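User: Fold this one for me? It's Translational regulator CsrA.
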Amino acid sequence: MLVLTRKTGQSIRIGDDIIVKIIDVDGSQVKIGIEAPKGVLIFREELYEKIKESNIEALKASKELRPEDLIK
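Assistant: Here's what I get for Translational regulator CsrA.
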């Protein structure tokens, strides 16, 4: 893992297309802005994990379906 120190107003560039900018620091909270192409999906980690779990459950449920269940 790369660890960098940045101050308010400073940025980090990821590749050619993604910029992460430090907007504000207030105690233990850091407000960041992310500039990325529209096709790049950006999620908070906890939301990403919920989506991933939901997708796994949906896949399991679809494997449990029988062809006759789909015809109804």
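One thing worth pointing out: The radius of gyration is 20 Å.
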